[in-house]
Amino acid sequence: MNQIAIRISGMTKYYGTGPDAVRALHDVSFEIRNNEFFTLLGPSGCGKTTLLRIIGGFEEYSEGKLELFDEEIQDLPPNRRPVNTVFQHYALFPHLSIRDNVGFGLKMLGKPDSEIHRQTNKMLDLVRLSEYADRRPSQLSGGQKQRVALARALAPEPKVLLLDEPLSALDLKLRQSMRHELKQIREQLGITFIFVTHDQEEALIMSDRIAVMSHGSLQQVGTPEEIYNHPENRFVADFVGETNLVQGVIRELCSDAACVEYADQELSLAIQNENLFATEQQVHLSIRPEHINIKPMSSESSNLPALIKEKTFLGTDIQFLCRLKGGNELTTRVQTTTTDCATLLPGDSVELTIDTKKIVLLGD
Amino acid sequence: MSNPPHGVFAPIRHWLLLPSWLTIGFLMVSPVLIMLVYSFLTKEFRGGVIWEFTFAAYDQFFIDRGLFGDEPPQIEWTYINIFWRSTWQAGLATLLCLFIGFPTAYYIATRPASTRNIWVFLITIPYWVNLLIRTVSMKFLIRDNGPINAWLLQTGLITEPISLINTPIAVQLGLFYSYLPFMVLPLYAAIERFDFSLSEAAADLYAHRWYTLWHIIIPNIKAGIIAGCILVFIPSLGAFLAPDLLGGAKNFMIGSLIEEQFKGTAGNWPFGAAASMILLTAVLLVMMLHARNQKIDAAHQGH
Fold this sequence. Notes:
The complex is a heterodimer. Chain A contains eight helices and 20 strands. Chain A is of the alpha+beta class. Chain B contains 14 helices and four strands.
């Protein structure tokens, strides 16, 4: 049932040759399932756009293999791949009407006029732009152009749709509604979306699965929950969502738990694989701000004592930057409505409680 | 239009425009007006004009009244033919410049940004040399015993030297060489501004590369193509060095005709001025037609 739409194996790409060559991709391998909303996530320059352009046929690669539905497609030029792209800056043809833009791919495929007309109307309906069919791209707003670009790429009914940071040029409100719309359209049409973004929030909200990339290498592939709750390394923990990355030392180790010393506290943490760790090893702990509770200091507490250094109001949440005794700092976030911490101020003494079940232990 | 700037220059803004107005008024408009007036004056035999109003110059251009002016008037074809020859020579030179200039400009515009300026610089280098010298050099290149014929003979491609000098082909070569950069530079500017993600989008949507060139790239750099064509066509139409030096008497163009009227003592200033005015009118008509087409285009696009 779960057919593989795209299989990438050992993909490596260098820009330039010789000693000056820049490595854009390093031995990247993963699979994208059919009908999946798959996101390539990473900071700028991580190779995610290069990878998308390789799939689209706009870039060549140095080593590796690219398969589309079990067929190698590396020798096919872009105009012969059953894959369409929504470009970052839309790339609508300014001299053609919206209708001709949307119908362009079908026309190039040699479809009869009646079919082009029918399919174009269907696509314009899908993105709710039917009344704009005879306008030019320059007469549309950013969000409308975005939807035309989407309709144009979807019209030839590609097997896979590539989206290169399609929402980055829109303002926040529009971006939020487009996220929703993109997700809906994908569910309606049931085709594979490969979505490139540097916005981790966008990736978490929209994707079925996410591939996190950094410096041309794949860091982790997984569902949004896996990526967020079980990051495999420091980069993923830090890049996806906000976290406190702190150092600790493993004091004791048994098959499913480790005792880690951090800030004069012994924390007992669950671990998946004891072979990854050793006693007396320096490790990193990823502690999400929402997993640290904060309350005013009480005398008989065994919790972490701390001083508030900064307080930031975030709307639904309040964020505190706290300094621990040893000089360590932790960021904690609590919901404005469910706490009596609203009155806490910088300089106040507080105690912190860490939900140890949610701490992620990361080697090196 | 944006509002005029309200800055420190606001009180004296009009005075700062004075040099521009003086340049346009004195150096561009007044010479044309002088020519317009001269074209309606009577000729003085050793050059110059007599201040007596007449249509004689225009009459001479268009109407044939026989050698002594006493025959029934007929259309004078001599000058109209020269005019017509000039037009197609200039048109052909423009097309030649476009066909050679487009790939050149495309190549330059698609180089890495750091090397583009070097290419543009190379294109302009020949223009540091005077046009006369360059035209004479062209003559040396293509004459019967010149290097091109010598090379062709040596390689055995031809057995007789190709006689190029004093042919329309020689004029074409001269015009092409004189005005090529006027085609390359506006084309380069247009192609450099072209968003190549549009051609990627076309390829992504299954367009063949020739289709992309004709239906995506060319429509979007049309302004540059038209600018280049105007910049080559207009000076070619009035050119006199290339036709004089390379084309000989048989390939006389309107520019040479006008030049003759003002050179030495054999000339006829009112006739030269009238021919200039006729040329100017023709050029203006072409430009107005172009402007009207653009307006129609713009209206069609809803701007």
